[in-house]
Automatic annotation (TrEMBL):
<dbReference type="GO" id="GO:0009793">
    <property type="term" value="P:embryo development ending in seed dormancy"/>
</dbReference>
<dbReference type="InterPro" id="IPR052957">
    <property type="entry name" value="Auxin_embryo_med"/>
</dbReference>
<dbReference type="GO" id="GO:0005634">
    <property type="term" value="C:nucleus"/>
</dbReference>
<dbReference type="GO" id="GO:0010305">
    <property type="term" value="P:leaf vascular tissue pattern formation"/>
</dbReference>
<dbReference type="GO" id="GO:0048364">
    <property type="term" value="P:root development"/>
</dbReference>
<protein>
    <submittedName>
        <fullName>Uncharacterized protein</fullName>
    </submittedName>
</protein>
Length: 229
């Protein structure tokens, strides 16, 4: 398998990062912005990070060379975003990462629709997001959680009044995907359906009755069920 030797300079001019990577692991840039966010928050070499595999920061003028001569991919592997989000969640506030998380989920959605993500890939994502340590989902309470049952009930609410009324309940968190503009709000309902394909542990709330019923059920059974309208 072909490999490429490369190096780059960190913000500390006396620190060089270099290595030998398989071409399949390298990519040109990241359209979600997760790598740039990660780059702006760390000041040490990340030789095992997806950030160290992004070539546009290393050789900004050589896109044609790497893309046509070596066949380097434009974007990172879709499953690789999981590691990026994990690193982001440990370095910046959840509210700062919310828009990036939304963009990554949209990339996963596109991957599922196009078939780039196989059923095994989707199963891997689903299993990973259910692990207690995979705290990549930002909430309006400004903390990151996973879909592990120990975190309680995770909801997506389209009613701001309901969100304010119930956001302080114990074991109930509201998903935060950043500030959406008008067009994003229109398309979010469609995009959100794809998230259910990753997990059935998300609750979509549109009215008080839905929330009350789901919270009551969660209190009795300590499990989450999918509710959609």
């Amino acid at each position: 398998m072909k490999a490429l030797f490369y190096y780059w300079i960190t913000s500390n001019l006396f620190s060089l990062v270099y290595g030998l990577s398989k071409l399949i692991e390298l990519f040109w840039h990241d359209s979600t912005g997760s790598m740039e966010q990660l780059k702006s928050t760390v000041d040490q070499p990340l030789t095992n990070s997806p950030l160290s595999k992004m070539l546009c920061n290393v050789y900004p003028g050589l896109h044609y060379f790497f893309f046509t001569k070596f066949g380097v991919a434009e974007n990172p592997p879709l499953l690789g975003y999981l590691q990026s989000l994990l690193q982001l969640s440990s370095t910046i506030l959840p509210s700062q990462a919310a828009k990036t998380v939304s963009d990554v989920f949209e990339q996963w959605n596109d991957g599922m629709e196009s078939g780039i993500l196989s059923s095994e890939d989707i199963g891997y994502l689903k299993k990973s997001i259910h692990k207690k340590k995979t705290t990549i989902l930002p909430t309006v309470q400004d903390k990151c959680i996973s879909l592990h049952e120990s975190f309680g009930l995770l909801c997506r609410c389209d009613d701001e009044h309901l969100k304010k009324e119930f956001k302080n309940l114990n074991n109930v968190d509201f998903l935060c995907f950043g500030d959406l503009n008008h067009e994003e709000k229109k398309s979010f309902g469609i995009r959100f359906l794809s998230y259910f394909r990753i997990s059935e542990s998300l609750c979509f709330l549109s009215n008080k009755e839905t929330l009350s019923e789901e919270v009551s059920q969660h209190t009795r059974t300590h499990t989450s069920t999918t509710i959609s309208h």
